[in-house]
Amino acid sequence: MSRRILFVDDDSNVLMGLQRSLRPLRAQWQMEFASSGEEAIHCFSLRPFDAVVTDMRMPGMDGAELLNTIQDQFPQTIRIILSGQSDRESILRSITSAHQFLSKPCDAEQLKSLLKRTIALTELLGNASLKRFVSRLKCVPSLPALYEEVTKELRSDDPSPPASAGSFPRTWE
Amino acid sequence: MIMRKGDPMAGGQMGLDRTTSPVSLEPELTDDSYLLSALLENTTDNIYFKDVESRFVRINRTMGQFLRLSNPSEAIGKSDQDFFATEHFMDARRDEIEIICSGRPLIGKEEREVWPDGSITWASTSKMPLFNAAGRCIGTFGISRDITARRKNEEVLEESEARFRDLTNAIREVFWLLDVQREKTLYVSPAYEEIWGRPLQLFYGNAEDWLSVVHEEDRVNVEAEFRANLDHPCESTFRIVKPDGSVRWIRSRRFPIRGADGVILRLAGLSADITNQRQAQDALAKTQRLLASIVTSSADAIISLSLDGRITTWNPSAQRIFGYNAFEAIGKTAATLLGGDREADILWTLDQIRQGRSVQAYKTECRHKCGSMIAVSLTSSPIRDANGETVGASFQYHNISERKKLEDKLSAVSKQLRALLETTNEYVIALDLEWHITYLNRLRVGSDPSTAIGRTLWEQAPYLLGTSFEQECRRAMTERKPCRFEEYVGSWKAWMTGVAYPTETGLLILAQDETEKRALDIQLRSAQKMEAIGQLAAGIAHEINTPIQYVGDNTTFFRESWEQVAEVVSAAQRLRNEAANGLVSQAAIANFDSCSKRVDVEYLTREVPQAIDQTLDGVQRVARIVSAMKEFSHPGSQEKRAVDLNKAIDTTVTISRNEWKYVADVRTQLDPKLPLVPCLAGEIAQVLLNLLVNAGHAIADAVRQAEGMRGTITITTRRVDDSVEISVADTGTGIPENARDKVFNPFFTTKEVGKGTGQGLTLAHTVIVKKHGGSIWFDTEVGKGTTFFIRLPLSVAAEG
Q1: Are residues B654 and B780 in the same domain?
Q2: Looking at the structure, do residues B607 and B649 belong to the same domain, yes or no?
Q3: pTM of the model
Q4: How deeply is B147 buried, as exposed, middle or buried, from its count of CB atoms within 10 A (0-12, 13-18, 19+)?
Q5: Which site among A32, B76, B280, B357 is 20 to 30 Å from B223 CA-CA?
Q6: Chain B residues contacting A, CB < 8 Å?
Q7: What is the ipTM of this complex?
Q8: Residues B74-93: pLDDT tens digits?
Q9: Structural domain contains residue B411
Q10: Per the domain annotation, does B480 fall within a domain?
């Protein structure tokens, strides 16, 4: 079953370069190329993709906006950033809708293997509804601090109400 | 009593005394004789009878006693000559001859009786002729009373009256005497005419005449006093207006004159003109007040001493300087109080004073109350009374210890100043008007600056001649105003900057070595530029990373393509080899077909040349950015150089591309004939960058508001007269009205926090206006955009 992948970049040279270097995989992957966020959305509307690889800074709709839209409308799509900006951390912090970040220049092998691994992972998660839930997650929820305190106290030799329990019930954070 | 009967002369003796007289010669007189005798015996008056020769024929007992006779009969036959001095005898004889001759009596004559011892007695005498029966004058008889005592009193009175008159006539005060009712003027001295200027008669005519000219302001008081109780003397001072209009001050004393029984008999007064006295007193008082204020306010201790050295006055400064107050000091002996171990000095000074000499500025010491000695300078002069007698001494102490302290302080300050001058990094040079060095705090080479003193600045540093430093110093010297200089001293390899200040004595030059500061400045400026590049770094990285991405991809494509092409080529070679042998195997043909089928030659033929072009383009893009960065970040020169502004604009556009390319296109309308402009290339480039980035941001804001729009940044260069104009126009939001007058203010920004520092346009203003003598302004319309204009002069004028 061939996977559909959409590449988005405002620089056509970049798209053409990708097309050329990924051409050997054209048998496994059905690749399409869009030169703006708007065009990408249009492509999605025709037929959704399994993965999208987008540039960040683009005129009009930028990468972040595009990924947010895709996350909302096509949550199962794997969302990958391929950006010329090198500050990966700050970008990932501000754009929570991306699953992966690749910075330019990124060689073809690296891109291929990332795409392959990610696609393989989605195949492992067969259940569509679970996939839908997980892919919607922005972050992994953690247990509230109070739960930690209470269990710790219960485990001690001589349990007593913890000091902080005075303010119980605490707001669940 | 007239006796006409008998002639006493003829009768010989007159027996008037019954006891001493025998029975009278005339018996018909018996009864009368008795009466006469009784009278003669008992009267206290002197009675005597004389014959025509003025010989006594009878005297009574009182007369006898008067003539110091034990028995009155002893006088018979004698005459005045026997008892009195000839003078009286003659007078009396003359009177008696007159009486005898004329037959008329002499009544009430006051006779002056001169006795042989010179003493004088007075008698009031009446003498009458004695007639005999025939009516012939036969003698005289007299009755006299001793009036010496009365007469003496009268003489004394007369004398005192005369004296009083002389006195009152002579005194310059007006003396007046009124009756008790104050109605009648009994006496007024002539001085009234002079003092009051009115005739005496007016006073005599009206006892209140003097009141009529009393000054109207004083009159009520004076009248009240005048009419007040007479019992006590009173004194008043008032003014009168004399007929000539002059105003005089009068002091008047009034007092009652009482009789022996204490009853007031008269009212007397003395009035004097005290105008001159008052004026003199006023003048004196003024002088005294002045002197007192001088003494009080003097910074010097001024004290006066009696000749025995006791302090009599003590001014406030004396208290300040010596610590004693006036109560503690006055009455004490100066030498004891202030002498300390210099007691002899005070004694010596007093000795000089006693000899009438002054002492000038004599340096000595005095003891303060606390015991310490104070350095003073003493000036002393004698105090003389009206007669010129020295009665005391004035001592004026000038405290020179304060001056000494001040001098010490001054010297400490000057030491500090010197230390400061010796340690400061600045060069301080003082010159006189002929350029001789009078002070130099340090030398650049060598350790002892004093070696330079006395030489002229130009002897000391000939290499400064002909420099702008010399020019500015000479300007400061001639125009007498501070002049700044900035000079690269070649032989020192140092930048010297400073100021030449004209002083009263010449010139003061302050200079500092700015070489290091300048080096730091340059470093700082290039650091600022690097910072600007740092801010652009993300964008530039993006600009570089993107081409590298596709250059890399394309290269990968080339490698893979080549592998395939190489296979086709090797299959083709196999075919060619077999064809050469004339035997083409089926296998070789199948191999070639399979290869060329796999290779998609058509695709490669179409794709490879395009990929090569794009790759070269990418490489070129990277190369251009790198070279623009290099150009932009070049530290540049500190001197203005002729710069191609068009090229500078291209560079700036290139490196800032990422800042605007998503929202705007840049159009440049650069005048190809634009002359080179003398400027600091690096700083101008930074200004252009700021304007371009601002334009990009303004457009981004506008584009965000209007979906799908793209803006335009238009950069134009042109020549305007003697300057070059650069304009950067954007189609952004425009500058709101309330921000327009603040755009060049430091730290003013309308951008979001973290996006702008508010320094960009401030820097632009500084660079264009201050460093290049150019101008920068803008046109803006909200919603349409902003155009910034820069004009740079083609001639170098402003400071570098």
Answers
A1: yes
A2: no
A3: 0.43
A4: middle
A5: B280
A6: 538, 541-554, 556-557, 560, 607, 610-611, 614, 617-618, 658, 661-663, 708, 710
A7: 0.73
A8: 888 888 888 888 888 888 88
A9: no
A10: yes
